[in-house]
Task: inverse folding
């Protein structure tokens, strides 16, 4: 029986770790079930042991994904709980395709969130835009550092676009063009 963390990992493979203030195309973006305890239970199950997990999942898409992935591994989830209105924990993991080396791991938004939009690199930062319309601005680099959170106040399902020094975010009802204030 495992008690503890579960999460949903976003595994992002890039051709090489991007230099500061540059962009790179993703080779692959895969969502997988993770978290220390949940992963340990799945791994032990694969080795032939009977396992169970007692923990909490958010009622969002990430929580449903993590719960079903653990059940699909054969882990007994009858003692797990889905918390209505809660969001499951997620993590972004950047992998260098040339070496297989994990270049960026452990970064999490400051609040649980669900993501449909792809991460976007811009001006030495990574923009993670949630379905709630919150954009988490993360400093590009091997150490996770959330610089700020900005909200457009409406749902966002599309990836932000960058053009002409502006960031374009398409909300459910509005299109936003964001640029640095002129000095």
Result:
């Amino acid at each position: 029986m495992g008690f503890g963390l579960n999460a949903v990992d976003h595994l992002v493979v890039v051709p090489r770790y991007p230099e500061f203030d540059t962009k790179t195309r993703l080779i692959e973006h895969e969502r997988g079930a993770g978290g220390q305890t949940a992963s340990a239970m799945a791994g032990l199950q694969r080795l032939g042991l009977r396992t169970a997990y007692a923990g909490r999942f958010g009622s969002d898409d990430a929580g449903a994904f993590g719960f079903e992935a653990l059940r699909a591994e054969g882990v007994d989830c009858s003692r797990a709980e889905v918390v209505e209105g809660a969001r499951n924990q997620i993590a972004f993991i950047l992998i260098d395709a040339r070496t297989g080396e994990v270049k960026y791991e452990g970064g999490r938004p400051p609040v649980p969130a669900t993501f449909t939009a792809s991460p976007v690199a811009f001006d030495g930062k990574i923009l993670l835009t949630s379905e709630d319309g919150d954009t988490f601005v993360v400093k590009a680099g091997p150490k996770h550092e959330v610089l700020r959170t900005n909200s457009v106040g409406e749902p966002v399902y599309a990836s932000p676009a960058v053009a002409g020094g502006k960031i374009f975010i398409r909300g459910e009802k509005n299109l936003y063009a964001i640029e640095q204030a002129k000095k």
